[in-house]
Amino acid sequence: MASDSETLLSDQALPLEARERTSRVIRQHRAQADALIEVLHQVQNLYGYLPRPALHQVACELQLPLSQVFGVASFYHLFRLEAPTAHRCAVCLGTACFVKGGAELAAHLETCLGVRLDEPAGNGIWSLEHVSCLGACGQAPVLVVDGQLQPRLPLDDPTALNQRLAALGLRGGEG
Predict the structure, then answer these.
(1) Where are the domains of the chain?
(2) Residue 103 phi/psi, 5° resolution?
(3) Is the pLDDT of residue 76 over 90?
(4) Which segments of 15-168 are extended strands (E)?
(5) Which superfamily is assigned to 87-167 in CATH?
């Protein structure tokens, strides 16, 4: 009888079509173990994250230990091991944004969304993450909501800030 962890990591948990797409990615790299990072990037592009059964399949087809594949996937911050939420909000905490109230904005967003900063699963609808710089220092403080830059947030005017956040849909539990 398989243990719970073996069941979670079994490639049988992926539908056949998904397993075939993952195999195609691996074949594009001639099943070379030294292509692991690129394979993981492409597999993540297929699913939006790296499902554990896909990691198991990658390990098997590249003939690598699962611990090595999981170690690489969990080490690099660009890889996601959890399914993404429907909406993402990234608050800049780089120097310019931090000085202009980025940390206060992050705390305010945690309250608005009912989610903790950098919690991968978010609240099921929204995730809130910090970034070190968005390259818009002259427009600080800034955040990105579902890929759209939101500059010059009015932290000195709570009513205006809340109206702007509400217009962006930044409310807990609502999409």
Answers:
(1) 4-75, 87-167
(2) -65, -40
(3) no
(4) 87-92, 126-131, 143-145, 148-150
(5) Glutaredoxin (3.40.30.10)
* Residues 46-63 pLDDT 10s: 998 999 999 999 999 999
Q: Which helix (H) or strand (E) holds 50?
A: none
Q: Which residue(s) pair with 91 in the sheet? A: 130, 143
* The overall pTM is greater than 0.70: no
C-alpha distances in Å from residue 90, one per residue of 12, 65, 120, 130: 35, 34, 12, 5
Across the chain, what does the average pLDDT equal?
89
**Rounded to whole angstroms, how far apart are CA atoms 31 and 62?**
5
At 108-128, the pLDDT tens digits run: 999 999 999 998 788 889 999
* Residues in CB range of 170: below 8 A, 6 or more apart: 89, 109, 112, 113, 126, 145
The tokens for 41 are 């990037």
Counting Cβ atoms within 10 Å, is residue 79 exposed (0-12), middle (13-18) or buried (19+)?
middle
The two tokens of residue 147 are 């890929």
Question: Residue 67 and residue 85: Cα distance in Å, rounded?
Answer: 26
Tokens representing residue 10 in the block: 């079994």
